[in-house]
Design brief:
The protein contains 9 helices and 7 strands; from the N terminus they run H-E-H-E-H-E-H-E-H-E-H-E-H-H-H-E. It is an alpha/beta fold. The relative contact order is 0.14.
Length: about 260
């Protein structure tokens, strides 16, 4: 029996991974670590210029990245994202559904347009991407889907009715799709992040950051790079016998 090589467990060489919301924050960190592990990464986000800048960063670190503009609330753009990826690299092995809108909403100020936008991007978009990419994932010998949830979908909040509801529904979708696609050899897992230092948290200002910091057992906000380990684990062969699972990365907020 040969000596196990830890590097083999996390090897993504020649795999093709689509990372939505990949131009900044958690998505950019995930794109960087997948590229560092050998994957060819598609960085998808609404603004092409931001995707191009992120792709240049990945390239400067020795990785391979393709920037594609895609609004996850627009079905036609999602289909084009899959088509362009397959045309460029001939395969799709991994999806990371990270793109999200964090519009704050309470019941007392419910707005139909905001509700629809939140569910379209945070829930319908990931499901449509999984559907569009399915023929390619079925041809992979190690396909993996990683959906980015939120602890806001696990625990209620006074101001995240739309966002939290969408993320809770995406958790259910993760488990349902895992059950459906498991027999086809496609793994579907999720990460539920807590407070990370991203633009979404920054919208709430210093008051929200202080509140979230006080709720963590570790007494701090996470840096975007701290999502890398969980994301690479679920995307790679290291988690080959995991599907339908949710990894909580929240510094102990819901412990």
């Amino acid at each position: 029996m040969s000596r196990p090589d830890p590097g083999d467990l996390f090897d993504m060489t020649n795999r093709v991974a689509i990372v939505t919301g990949g131009s900044r924050g958690l998505g950019l960190s995930i794109a960087r670590i997948l590229a560092a592990a050998g994957a060819r990464v598609v960085i998808a986000s609404r603004k092409l210029e931001a995707c191009e800048q992120a792709a240049k960063l990945v390239a400067s670190e020795g990785g391979s990245a393709l920037p594609i503009a895609c609004h996850m609330g627009e079905p036609a753009q999602i289909r084009r994202l899959v088509e362009e990826t397959a045309k460029r690299w001939g395969r799709i092995d991994c999806l990371v559904n990270n793109a999200a809108v964090g519009l704050r909403m309470r019941l007392v100020d419910f707005d139909e347009n905001a509700w629809d936008k939140t569910l379209n991007v945070n829930l319908r978009g990931p499901i449509q991407l999984m559907h569009a990419a399915l023929p390619h994932l079925e041809r992979s010998d190690g396909a993996s889907i990683v959906n980015i949830l939120s602890i806001g979908g696990i625990r209620g909040s006074q101001s995240l009715l739309g966002y939290g509801s969408a993320k809770a529904a995406l958790e259910h979708a993760t488990q349902s799709v895992a059950a459906e696609l498991g027999p086809r050899g496609i793994r579907v897992n999720a990460i539920a992040p807590g407070p990370f230092r991203t633009d979404m948290l920054g919208v709430g200002g210093a008051e929200l950051e202080a509140e979230m910091t006080s709720k963590t057992l570790l007494g701090r906000i996470a840096e975007p790079e701290e999502i890398m380990g969980a994301a690479l684990f679920l995307a790679s062969p290291a988690s080959s016998f995991m599907t339908g699972a949710v990894l909580v990365v929240d510094g102990g907020v819901i412990a």
